[in-house]
Here is the input.
Amino acid sequence: MRIAILDDYQHLSTRLADWSAVQARAEVVIFDRHLSEQEAVSALADFDAVCHLRERMAMPRSLIDRLPRLKCIFITGHEHRTLDLAACRERGIVVSYALNGPTGLSATPELSWGLILSLARQIPEAAAAMKQGGWQRHCGTVLRGKTLGLLGLGRIGKAMVPVAQAFGMQVLAWSRNLQPEPARAAGAEYATLDDLLARSDYVSLHLVLGERTRHVLGARELGLMKPTAYLVNTSRAALVEPAALMDTLVNRRIAGAALDVYEVEPLPDDDALRKLDNVILTPHLGYTVQESLRDFYRGTVENVSAWLAGQPVNVVGG
Here is the structure.
């Protein structure tokens, strides 16, 4: 039995979880670089199971159909949006999930605030300049008195509110189904999308990606933002229409953006976003903290062990 651990860039899977029980019954191989679909066809041809970390690697039907030995797919999180479950069902491939614990759920809101603070005080630029020599070259702004606009007021969006209040910020919130009273109960003021975009100094995205939210921010919506405003996206890249975002940033119609998610991941080395000086880029760090990965990998070990024992648990659709 051969089991692949995919996209474990820093070999954290075996540092944060004990795989010895699995290794006693199967060969475990770590892939520490991202595989294209064509590379995966060859590299994974003789594996019985693969272990994913979130959605770092897509598993479309075109890949699943070319892995005839594959019997089980282990995912982290409730769902894997780029995994073709219908293809798995047709092949009889078991899909088993592991969840994040309560500590790790703070990871994305904390990163969002790190990015907002970095934009406000120009921390990345100032830190880089210090390494080059010299002294004060940058002058930031405070958050007190500014307005934070939250697109989405679910679990992560709600976690943003008390921090904003501690900074003395006004909080606006919008989603398609949000009503004024639930927004008020969470400590935010409900606003229409257009009103939120026009009034906010920082717009932070926390929506679930779906057909109704895909490209919810296009050229028209981005054009409503203040020229001094910033956009922060730690949710899903496809919430923002990519050509409109690039045009907005290149032409400096807003002050800048901080992005943690991208249409193509890993972000290609020659991507135009890397060349912009008004964008902070992080490599999808939202959930990537030791606490989250420890929960994910320990849960995966338990799921793999159960499957090897012939009693799979946490089966998607089971």
